[in-house]
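Appendix C reproduces, verbatim, an entry submitted by the partner laboratory led by Prof. M.T., so that reviewers can inspect both the input and the predicted structure.
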Amino acid sequence: DRARKQVIEASIREALKSLPGVRSKVGLGGSGEKYILVLTGDDPQSLSQAAIDVERDLRSIKGLGSIASSASLSRPEVMIRPDVAKAADLGVTTAAMAQTLRIATLGDYDAALAKLNLSDRQVPIVVRLKDDARQDMQTLGQLLIPGSKGPVMLSQVASIELGGGPALIERYDRERNINFEIELSGMPLGDVTAAVAQLPSLKQLPPGVAQREIGDAEVMGELFASFALAMGIGILCITMVLILLFKSVLHPITILAALPLSLGGAFVALLLADKSFSMPSLIGLIMLMGIATKNSILLVEYAIEASKTGLDRHQALIEACRLRARPIIMTTIAMGAGMLPIASGWGAADASFRSPMAIAVIGGLLTSTVLSLLVIPVVYTFIDDLDRFFGGLRKMPKVKLAK
């Protein structure tokens, strides 16, 4: 069943590719996925008006699929407004009012209903007002409510009127909310989130109404935050290892200068390939950190060792670039060749998921290989001058003041 499912999915993807004007996006923005936008607030009127404005602006974004709102239509209802002072004076509670009205209009709970025992089954007996009586305000006002001083008519402790209200009230974190389910229709979730954030209705929400993101948008935010933390910890660990290796604080800065060079190439490659920046892309960036750092270590380590043999700094850097260029280029070619089938989607059932990772790695390798041979020697020169400057300050003779 699993193999048959993979074959069917691959056939559908190939069929979609053959259709004109059809594109597929990867990551948190694939076909069939939804972006969920939530508006919360305590004021029902302000929340409903804000939902109307937001829905109108959402439909102005091009490329989105259907937009479904959970805002319920207003329907007529009987509104009971208790008079707290009179109810307290007569010993009538709001719970007693609610229970009496519930039994009179809907009937009691099933567990509390009387049962008619037949030979083969039990028939529950529901006692409530007739349909026409439930619509008569005068009849409802004559309902007797139990109180501490005896039964009291409902009209004596509450006002009864016809009004309108939502058919369904939903809450999120104990606040009223209205959900918008937006079909992405192949658009990346990040692009949709950015477009929604620029809507005028969301920038000018009424007081008491707030926007919340749940579902894929919330997952994407947590994902990017976690990966940012992982990359920060990775860079910190690499720095600590390099400080122990070179016994210097400044030379690891030269090596880590290769990281921004690789990130730029990864972003450009994703842009040219029309791929979204998603979880696989982040995995590719973490892979690039190790490869770019390794290439930079080869250059800096050889330059340091060559300087110890008596070569001046300029000759040491030229010799390092000449001799270390071959292993760096061989690593780039081997890694790029290994990632090429994944980037192009050859023979992989989940190619649409892994393709951004391979494209990010290939783009970052190309730029880091070329720019490392040009930029790292320049950065090494400045860092070495800085190291010599501080070394000279440490070696300056101390001046003793005469008494």
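The longest helix spans residues 351-395. Additional entries are available on request from the coordinating office.
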